Amino acid sequence: MKNQSILAVTGKSVEKFTGDLVVYCAGQQKNKMPLCEDFVKKIIQPAWKTGGFSGKKGEFLLAYTALTGSKRYRKMTCGRIGIVGLGETASSVDEAREQLRLAGGTVAAEAKKCKAKKVLVVLPEWLDMAVVDAAEALSEGLLLGNYCFDKYKEKKGEGEELQPVRSFMLAGAGSAAAMRRGMKSGRAAALAACRARDMANEPGNIWTPAKFADFAEKLAGRYALKCRIIEKPTMKKLGMGGLLAVNQGSDLPPKLVVLEYISDKKNPTLMLVGKGLTFDSGGISLKPAKGMEDMKYDMCGGAAVLTTMQVVGEERPGNVNVVALVPATDNMSGAAAFKPGDIITHFGGKTSEVINTDAEGRLILADALAWGIKTYAPDAVVDLATLTGAVIIGLGHHRTGLLSNNDSLAQRVSEAGERSGEPFWRLPLGPEYSKQLESKVADLKNVGGRSAGTITAAAYLQEFIGDTPWAHCDVAGTAWNFTEKSYVPKGPSGIAVRTLVTLIRQWKPLQ
To answer: What is this structure's pTM?
Structure first.
């Protein structure tokens, strides 16, 4: 993994920086010179006058210190200066945070182009934003934008995208301690998201249910978490018919991966559940061949949940307990595969008629949710799953579908997403949708027809929730091919890791 770039705060003067590139920020102003530090204007002015740079989002201006004509810059050890545009003044803190993330992603991309290995970024003094927030957002953008995955390439580092920056430094006015706090928070969340991307990029013949279990066990050892792996024989004893049915056509045994962080037994417990479908062929209800290779990404929910626990282990919050569950299997069409028309019995006794074996995610999540709620009695549950193609039809690749039985929890998830640059859109639930799941031969059926497919999938899960506050996040449209951003690569995005981290960092008991 090439995503462990050094990120640090320096108190040294910019003039003494011995790296490859120093970067300043500039804001766009209508019919005016870009907003920036006074001494940077000498570099920007010629480009602005000729229409070459206005400070708009995504712009980047590169200059050489020896050619600036400024005594200040000629004294600099670093030979190159970059100016990155933030765009027009943000209307909210969340918008400003996203501007800095995008700027960080742009800096990482431009640094790769000019083969810079050591980069210093100066936080803008003119930005009306707390230093801790600015440093956090910029750190996220730099590390997320610096991501690459070339593990399986024989010739590494030949393309621009394969030359990540080795180290980033942050500098600027304001409290150095606050800058370090923000940098540390941004780094932890960004590296966790990059790790989730790594998991998703691994092929299905490498990232198996056993890999999920191995990763969880290593996290438990590193951060003093409690890990439990529920194996197939125990699943049979517990009656986890959904997870067992989906696994029937596979040569690889399923796993239910459980990680616990207990700060205090008196604290509220947040339970996270992530779909860990390591490859989805559709089973007997076989998917079309075109694009099936992307079905290795069907485990992105599980990846997000486990890498969130990496941050929990590092930061060890004192006000909340966090339990993570990942039901993991693949969905294959082997000789013993479950079939349309089969009836399965979930944990707890509820029966389900299988209409379509490609609606398997809800089957494995239902067992995990029902067992987890009975075992841990959580105060709230959030599940993440690449659950339905219908959510892409409804929301495209721009927002994650959010469904919930609790307004307060839904609002918190949505606000955490806005703060993280990972927006949600809430969809309704209700008995009219649950009615579509009625079966003549079982308690329910696993699909409710084409209409409202995302909602009926969530309604299926709701059958196993009871009264526990619960939010379901359908990330099928955002886990890969997410809205194009400078800090989000093509392929898996690592979506919702930073949202979950923000949710946990700001956790308060539900009213």
So the answer is: 0.96
